[in-house]
Amino acid sequence: MKPTEDFGEPRNMATSKTNIFYNPTFRSVVFQILAVAGLAFFFYTIVNNALSNLEARGIATGFDFLSQEAGFGIGLTLIEYDETYSYGRTFIVGLLNTALVSFFGIILATIVGFIMGIARLSTNWLVSRFAAVYIEIFRNVPLLLQIFFWYFAVLQALPSARQSLSLGEAIFLNVRGLYFPAPIFETGASIVIGSFVVGIIVTILVSVWAKNKQQLTGQQTPMGKITLLFCVVIPVVCYFVMGSPISAEMPELRGFNFEGGISIIPELAALLIALSIYTASFIAEIVRSGINAVSHGQTEAAMSLGLPRSRTLKLVVIPQALRIIIPPLTSQYLNLTKNSSLAMAIGYPDLVSVFAGTTLNQTGQAIEIIAMTMGVYLTLSLLTSALMNIYNRKVALVER
């Protein structure tokens, strides 16, 4: 028998050099570089063609238009504004109006969503059915139609200013909006406000201390009385000691409309109600599924210790359910912020309506304006995600 040939001889150098192209790591890096380069060339071509077309039409590019006079009014402004201000000012006004409806929409949607989610699991048949009907109706009707409903069918059907619905002589509701007293701050008001802020800070610190004390000793601290003392009693005492430095400016009917006080325009009210109710229907299902994901044994163990249902839900079930609720809840917050752009349909002066609408039509700076508008929504979404991720890490289960 012939001896077995040796197949372990080293391969030639040319063959070993070509093996690098079959290396998965090397190929993945090369393909990613080629993909990024192709994408960059694609966007460069688009932008270059767009700039060339604008230049051929005589439309200037750049952000110099932001310093030009706007020449149009805005119905709702959180900062000082009139027709003589620049387009840059309109951008800020629209941004603040978008942030306003998004912030309060998130708060209201969270409150209503948690209430309906818990009600959906109620042992009371009527409460449970009511929550189920609410969820199925508002979750399956398009948001734009809901905005139209609240604006045209509800708010536009209110009486005129002279026949306003009133609560006492301070709050008035009519087709032009909701009017209520505005605070007037005089000398010494800063002390009253400062005492209230300090009271909130002290209450939070005491609450943290009381929680640690309860975990170590089992003793509970009467936080209700402490909160009443620092957040109500002390600020009220400061208010009278300083000579009542905070008063109210009442809205008054002059001609065909009210003047003075604070007003909420119907466009803001309709958009806020529709966004909150629509998003809350999704949040309610998220809350329900999060609570159902908590083992029923946790509830039975808490109730066997004598805890009532309300405290069992607050102290045992909800803290564990939050670990499941927070991630999808973040997505709903992002959806609410982006859906606020539908405000343009009813004339609410948000960023899309004021800046990407009127300003774009007057200046023709499409690329700059759309890029700035997209950047705002991207920034708001990333900021919301960052804050929710911080909270998510705080409530997450820490493994030992």
UniProtKB/TrEMBL annotation:
It is a multi-pass membrane protein. Residues 95-388 form the ABC transmembrane type-1 domain. It is found in: Cell inner membrane; Cell membrane. Belongs to the binding-protein-dependent transport system permease family. HisMQ subfamily. The keyword Iron does not apply. PANTHER family: AMINO-ACID ABC TRANSPORTER PERMEASE PROTEIN YHDX-RELATED, MEMBRANE COMPONENT OF AMINO ACID ABC TRANSPORTER. Its main location: membrane. It comes from Vibrio caribbeanicus ATCC BAA-2122. This is Amino acid ABC transporter, permease protein. Gene3D superfamilies: MetI-like (1.10.3720.10).
